[in-house]
Design brief:
Blueprint (H helix, E strand, L loop, with lengths): L1 E7 L24 E7 L4 H17 L4 E8 L8 H10 L6 E5 L3 H5 L7 E5 L4 E7 L4 H12 L6 H8 L15 H4 L9 H4 L10 E2 L19 E4 L10 E9 L4 E4 L8 E18 L5 E7 L2 E2 L10 E2 L4 E5 L3 E20 L4 E8 L1
Parallel strand pairs: 2-3, 3-4
Antiparallel strand pairs: 1-6, 2-5, 5-6, 7-17, 8-9, 9-10, 9-11, 10-17, 11-16, 11-17, 12-13, 12-15, 12-16, 14-15
Length: 355
């Protein structure tokens, strides 16, 4: 974590509710060391940090550390407390104290601009450390032991850090690209589903017009309206290509079956990944369905993602609420052309994320 100039910790602002149905404040936490975990369930790096936060809570809660989650929304649907509470349950966080920062006001008063962000507050109520982005247990431990006045549990790591050396990988909670190295025993509950980031993998791609930077269709499209898209003759690496009729919205695209000539499809050639994850949802709270193909063929048993189902006719996934789903999983990083073929017109697509 990064040492920052000590300032009084701002009070929680406009928290809509708390997971334990109580009310919490920075003032009431004075006398404890506080770890604020700013996150959202739609961010893959937030999900990959969850095992780290769980390990910290398990190790230090009885040593006067309070771990407080602040869920701040990146998408409109993530402001819905029903979705947040379902995510907490699915991720095994329902017993943790989490504030629903649905307007992102607390996120803002702590100077945040991304997910995740971690803030450490000392016993006197002063912000002392911050850590932006994904982190392992080793990234937090020195700061935690400093504020908790505890001995550093791994003197070797401290010495190596002071000498400018990289920590021994065997002491890390995560190992980059575990699955690709065949180290399944080292994976945690998150990386087993979504995989781990690694150098050279395909980037995160958002499809809504507010953040899309890699659009492969060579045609003008009207925002917030339905457009009929023609698939380009050449699919470039890491670009989103639409076929058929889609409504192009700020955060994503919605499928339509009104155009009889072209079945709606999303085509994406990823340059390197062993896990394809997608943020998807349903527009009417009823189950939405989509088929999946790689290189024009349905997935083999060895390619089935964690959330994928198989029947006698197709390979598909079913969306019952908006969240990140793993749809392709291979034993090592590979290059493929992915096709997502909606089967229902309530199918809504937001983002690609890889591992």
């Amino acid at each position: 974590m990064n040492i920052i100039p000590a300032v009084s910790a701002p009070e929680f602002k406009d928290i809509k509710g708390w997971s334990d149905n109580a009310k919490h404040s920075i003032k009431e936490l004075k006398g404890k060391v506080v770890l604020l975990d700013f996150w959202t369930y739609t961010c893959i790096f937030c999900l990959r940090t969850i095992p780290t936060i769980k390990k910290i809570k398990e190790k230090y809660t009885d040593k006067d550390l309070a771990v407080i989650g602040i869920h701040c929304a990146e998408y409109e649907f993530a402001k819905n407390t029903v979705n947040i509470e379902r995510a907490l349950k699915e991720l095994g966080l329902d017993e943790y104290i989490t504030g629903y920062d649905t307007t992102n006001k607390t996120w803002e008063v702590y100077g945040n601009s991304y997910w995740p962000k971690h803030i450490l507050i000392d016993r006197e109520g002063f912000v002392r450390y911050e850590h932006p982005g994904y982190g392992t247990f080793d990234d937090f431990e020195e700061a935690l032991t400093d504020l908790l006045d505890l001995p550093y549990s791994n003197p070797k790591l401290r010495q190596e850090k002071e000498e400018g050396k990289s920590p021994d990988s065997k002491d890390n909670l995560f190992k980059e690209n575990d699955k690709d190295q065949g180290n399944d025993k080292d994976q945690n509950e998150v990386t087993k589903i979504y995989g781990m980031h690694f150098s050279g993998m395909a980037p995160e791609i958002c499809v809504g017009y507010s953040r899309l930077r890699r659009f492969g269709n060579n045609q003008k499209a009207k925002i917030n309206e339905y457009n009929v898209f023609t698939e380009p003759p050449t699919v470039m690496d890491n670009t989103v290509n639409l076929r058929g009729k889609w409504r192009w919205d700020k955060e994503g695209v919605k499928a339509s079956f009104d155009n009889k000539e072209k079945h709606p499809a999303i085509i994406f050639k990823y340059n390197m990944a062993s896990n394809v994850n997608v943020l998807v949802g349903s527009t009417d709270e009823k189950p939405a369905f989509a088929n999946i193909k790689l290189d024009g063929e349905f997935l083999t048993d060895e390619q089935l993602g964690y959330h994928v189902k198989k029947d006698s006719n197709s390979i598909f996934f079913e969306i019952t609420w908006p969240h990140i789903m793993n749809i392709v999983k291979t034993s090592s990083p590979e290059i493929h052309v992915l096709e997502i073929l909606p089967k229902t017109d309530n199918f809504y697509f937001y983002t690609f994320v890889f591992g």
